[in-house]
Amino acid sequence: MAKKLILIIFFLPSLLMSQNLGDYYAGKKYYFEAITEYKRQLFTKDYTNKDKVLYKISLLYFRSNRKVKAETYLTQAIFNKKHTDYDINCYILAAKIHWDNYDYKIFRNTLTQLQTTLDSGRCDTLEYIKAWSYYYNAQWKQGNQIIDSLNLSFSDSLLADINRIAHIPQKSKVLAGIMSTILPGSGNLYAGDHKNALLTFGLVGSIGGSIIWNIIKRAYFVAASKYLFLFRRYYKGSRKNLLHKIEKENVSRIGDYLKSISSHYPDPIKKLQEMKKISDRNLFENK
Question: Which of 36, 44, 81 is nearest to 60 (CA)?
Answer without folding.
Answer: 36
